Amino acid sequence: MNDEVIIAEELTKVFNKSLVAVDHISFRVKSGEIFGFLGPNGAGKTTTISMLITVLRPTEGTASVLGYDIVRQANDVRKVIGVVPQEYTADEDLTGYENIMLCADLYGIPREIAKKRALELLEMVELTQFKDKRVETYSGGMRRRLELACGLINRPKVLFLDEPTLGLDVQTRTATWNYIHKLKEEYGMTIFMTTHYLEEADALCDRIAIIDKGRIVSIGTPRELKDSLGGDIITISIKESVDVSELIRGVAHVKDVKKENGSYRIKAEFGEVTAPLIIEALRKGGYTVTRLSLTEPTLNEVYLEYTGRTLRDSEESKEAIRMQRMILRRARGG
Amino acid sequence: MSETNNCSPSLLRGLWALTVRELKKWLKDPVMVLMLVLQPLIWMGLLGKSMNLNAIFSINSFSYLEMPDIYIPGSLLKPPVSGTLVIPGSLIAQQLQQMFSDVGARIMQASFGVTDYFSYMAVGMVSMIVVMTTMFTGFSIVWDRRLGFLNKIISTPVSRAAIIFSKILNATLRAVFQATVILALAYLLGLQLSPKFTPFNLLGIYAAIFLVSVGLSSIFIAFSLRTTRMERPMQIINLIMMPLMFASNIFFPISLMPDWMQAVAKVNPLSYLTDAVRELTILPPDGSVLMLDFAYLGIFAVILSAIGIVLSWKYLTK
Questions:
Q1: Does the keyword Zinc-finger apply (chain A) (predicted)?
Q2: Contacts of B137 (CB under 8 A, 6+ apart)
Q3: What confidence tier does A6 reach under pLDDT thresholds 50, 70, 90?
Q4: Which residues in B lie closer than 8 A to residue A102 (C-beta atoms)?
Q5: A249 lies in the same domain as A118
Q6: Which domain range does residue B68 map to?
Q7: Measured between alpha carbons, how far is A109 from B157 in angstroms, rounded to an integer?
Q8: Nearest residue in chain B measured CA to CA from A120
Q9: What is the pLDDT of residues B147-175, one digit of tens each?
Q10: Residue B34 shares a structural domain with residue B66
Q11: Residues B195 and B66 in one domain
């Protein structure tokens, strides 16, 4: 009972009676784990998180956080969670310290305790020397850290991170990951996060749910997800424009062959051994192999497997992402 | 490190925190304060000083009046005398001017309540600043929503009422402050206070401003919360500002307006606000008129804030 911190059952959100953002998803998050929602923009990640943090009311289905129903006991949920939204919500006109204290006030934390905690948190996210500077002057990474600190002021048992490294450069992103790791170790929190960065999900999450078009298409540890592909991926191209899928399928250890964009994506056990066998078979058939690559499965492969496209494909320009978010937010009425 | 706070923030704590945030933001942006004051100041300086109605009716407007001397033959007088009676033209002009001035002052007094138009409309500018300030403050919630701040505070256990009331309170505090600035400026520019004015009257003025601000800001916040387009609240402000101002007694007495306009002006809360502020500044206060003004403003505030708060509440707890 206490082992499952978040329980979602058939959670659904429909906007304007027609736009299905989240489509009957169910999942359970265990105590102390980092659970990640991985999917492209517009997959329904933020909508899901918004329902869990009681900002949006589900159209259908239920969910509970630490046993509190997100609709009927919304206020109890709010007390035990911390939220780090994907936007920079800290007030630019206030200083970092003022922002944290504002959050403390919103949680009703006694002033004395709040002051101590605020300084502690600022120390942890290495903002102590900037605490009396207006947030206006902060860099993206600093703002992100300040948001993290704000989300922790009430010592939440469950922390929600919505795209924690969106728009950050690689270095800052890695630094943020370190903070999140540290958080988990120091406070033993359960963390629910969304991301559309594969590396992030791989580096941080204990378990991942791959979400696409409002549905969870697969769920498991990164290892499990990769293993579920059933082996390595061999990609091969031949000179001739003939379909040789059947021929390849006949080779030992080959489990699956997909032809896409003129090359063959082959799933096979023991890739290192199988690849030469395939080349051999093709040469015997009179075909010329022009290109071959062998990869151990990554989350990208997993993602491709379950959604039929790579995350890279669905990653658009920054402007397009912003537009899409705008449209979604409008639909959400937020 | 695992102790958690299960304490719920009190309504007052949340209200205080959110209001202080707004006030801090406000004080850190003095330009905005200045800009808002500037507009009524320009109106007051240009319109109030140029539409100098009392000057039309005053001696000055007849200073060029030249009357010929009047010769009356002594035989026409009763009883007839010999010779000719000469009434100097300048004397007649003087008499006419005096009469005209008296009549003019009475006309001003009868229609405006005071003999000085500048004082009349300068007080009206208090209403203008109150409307502008409350609306622009209501507008700020659109930004809070856009920037994600609103969603963040919704996800905290802070009372929903605190979220709404902090905005209303903020609008009211700003309106009171700006109105004080306007009154002070008007006084410097020549506003003539009634001899019966006492600093206590300010409390009455603030009460009237409070009622209007609460009503207007609640409804405007509810509207801003629900609008899907950022530009909408701005358009609304632009659209209703002029009619609200001109179909009221801010610039001109209601009794001299055409009937249809009177009908509008008589439900316009700004008429009552302006009237109350006039009673408390430039006019000798009339208890029964003030009672009526405050009663109307009270009802206005209760109805609008009830609607506004219910709508906002629904949005925040949807």
A1: no
A2: B22, B167, B170, B171, B174, B175, B217
A3: very high
A4: 17-18, 21
A5: no
A6: 59-99
A7: 11
A8: B1
A9: 888 989 999 999 888 999 999 999 999 89
A10: no
A11: no
